[in-house]
Amino acid sequence: MSDRIYNFSAGPAVLPEPVLQQARQDIWNIDSSGIGILEHSHRGKVFDRVIQEAENDCRQLGNIPDNYRVLFLQGGASTQFFMLPANFLAEDATADYINTGAWTKKAIKEAQLYGKVNVAASSEDENFSYIPGLDQINWSANPVYAHMASNNTIFGTQYRQIPTPPGDAFLVCDASSDIFSEPIDFSRYGMVYAGAQKNLGPSGVALVIIREDLLDRKVRTLPTMLRYAIHAEKGSRYNTPPAFGIYIMGLVFKWILDNGGLEAMQQRNNAKAGVLYELLDSSSFWTTTARQDSRSMMNVCFRAPSEELEKQFIKEAGENGFSGLKGHRSVGGMRASIYNAFPEAGCQALTQFMKEFQAVHEGTAAI
Ligand SMILES: *Cc1c(COP(=O)(O)O)cnc(C)c1O
């Protein structure tokens, strides 16, 4: 029997158990080298293998076109918020941003340090409960790039249709909380980035997939560490890279490949979220916060009839082996984060627990 519990944390989040088992061994001694993964030189043979396989498996998994580079960078997704405009947005140029939540707001704020920002669409008017439709986007005349976040971790919304920016503008996606949870067509994007700690591995490292021709652009002089081109030229080893994060990501890529790839992930994730949404939709006790057409398959946000009941639910859930269900303070209520590695059995168990809680409290609910 496992001594682990159901972890609904939004991030850092649950990792696949086979990955953790392998890491447990490799921390002690990897590839029979007599040295653990944390102790190997980032320029040695063992780490050569680790980073090479991580990149190859990532490419295979995402069906990434040859004219894209795969980078492993430090500073999480938030460093990409400023690295992107620093590299591509000149002071007098404009970038378009679609504002769908707290993370895109932060990305906008950083871009404004470097150039002009046009907020092409926003769902802030309804507390980010939906994804703006393609016909609600007002692109600027000539943006350098357009930025979106495919899944909004805090508000539990996710794109169903990918927008196409105007002219030569390239599309950039913050995919931190849904990368590799479903198939993705990289050719639609100039750059996709993701902090690892939701679907890919430990915090601190970001996966950046960037179209090669963009690396030749230069809009200002930057510190070396902030230039995509140098990281691409040096194979993500300009300095000591986040080696352990890259190693874990590599294992996660292999785990997804072993489990049928992105189509299989999507099926599993839809089934998992379906279990929760079905209960939420069929009950008058629970309500969802995201608009139905914008719902996330990764972060399921829901409310109980009163804040007292929500507090009690979260407490009792914790006592029963369901961790991490407290919603973000800007939404309130509960949030079940059910990333790739989260098992369907956990969604079944949670709905069972929710039904029992509802049965006890339905009559007493202060509505
Ligand atoms: C978690 C998250 C981030 C921030 O990631 P850090 O690695 O903590 O910087 C950015 N964007 C989205 C969509 C996220 O879910």
Q: What fraction strand?
A: 15-25%
Low-confidence stretches: none
Largest sheet: 7 strands, mixed
The end-to-end span amounts to: 41 Å
- List cofactors, ions and other ligands: pyridoxal-5'-phosphate
Order of helices and strands: EHHEHEHEEEEEEEHHHEEHEEH
Report helical residue fraction.
Answer: 25-40%
Can you count the beta strands? 14
CATH topological fold name of the largest domain: Aspartate Aminotransferase, domain 2
Descriptive report:
- 35% of the residues lie in helices and 17% in strands.
- By secondary structure, it is an alpha/beta fold.
- The chain folds into 2 domains: 18-258, 3-Layer(aba) Sandwich (Aspartate Aminotransferase, domain 2), CATH 3.40.640.10; 260-361, Aspartate Aminotransferase, domain 1, CATH 3.90.1150.
- A hairpin with a 4-residue loop joins strand 6 (151-152) and strand 7.
- The protein is globular, with a radius of gyration of 21 Å.
- Bound molecules: pyridoxal-5'-phosphate.
- The site of pyridoxal-5'-phosphate has 13 residues, from helix 3.
Outline:
With 367 residues, the chain is an alpha/beta fold.
Topology of helices and strands:
Elements: E1 6-7, H1 17-28, H2 45-62, E2 68-74, H3 76-88, E3 94-99, H4 102-111, E4 116-122, E5 145-149, E6 151-152, E7 157-158, E8 170-174, E9 191-195, E10 205-211, H5 228-233, H6 243-258, H7 261-282, E11 287-288, E12 299-303, H8 307-319, E13 322-323, E14 334-337, H9 344-361
Parallel strand pairs: 1-13, 3-4, 3-5, 5-8, 8-9
Antiparallel strand pairs: 2-10, 6-7, 9-10, 11-12, 12-14
Helix pairs in contact: 1-6, 2-6, 3-4, 7-9
This protein binds pyridoxal-5'-phosphate.
